[in-house]
C-alpha cells in the first residue's frame, strides 16, 4: 500500500462496517464516506465489530466463524470461503467451533484476524483489546 492506509483504517472502521440505520457508540454523526461508517477512534471501530458479532450470535444468525463470516462478508460481495479460511488460521480457532462472544480469549483473536483481512495489515492488538474493554463494559452479563 506504499504507506497509504486502507479505507477501513482511514475511517477508523477496521471492520469496514457498512453505513446503516444502526448507530454504534463512538460512531461519527456524519460519515463523509458514502458506503462505510466512520468512528471517532480505532477502538470504537473495534468495539463495533465485537457488538456486531455478538448481535449475530444472540439473534441466532450463527455462532461459528463460518456462520458469522458468511453473514458479515457474503459471497455476493466477497470471496467468503477465503475470508473464513484466513480468519480460522489467524484466530487459531476452527471454523465450526461455537464462539462465546463474551469471551475475550476467543473474540480478540477473531477480530484481529478479521481486521487483517479487511485492511491488509496486522491489527493493532492494543487497540483491539481497548475496543474489547469498551464492548464488554456494556455487554457483560
Structure overview:
It is globular and about 35 Å long. The relative contact order is 0.17. It is mostly helical and 141 residues long. Helix 3 crosses helix 4, helix 4 (80-91) packs across helix 5 and helix 5 (104-119) packs across helix 6 (125-139). The chain is built from six helices and no strands. The chain has one domain.
Element layout with pairings:
Blueprint: H1 7-10, H2 42-58, H3 65-72, H4 80-91, H5 104-119, H6 125-139
Helix pairs in contact: 2-6, 3-4, 4-5, 5-6
Explain briefly what this protein structure is.
This protein is mostly helical and 141 residues long. It is 51% helix and 0% strand.
Which features characterize this protein?
141 residues, globular
> What is the number of E strands?
0
Tally of contiguous helical segments: 6
Largest sheet, if any? Answer: none
Mean pLDDT: 95
Counting helices, strands and paired strands, the structural category is: mainly alpha
Sketch the topology as an H/E string, one letter per element. HHHHHH
Distance from N terminus to C terminus (CA atoms, Å) equals 41 Å
Q: What is the molecular shape? A: globular
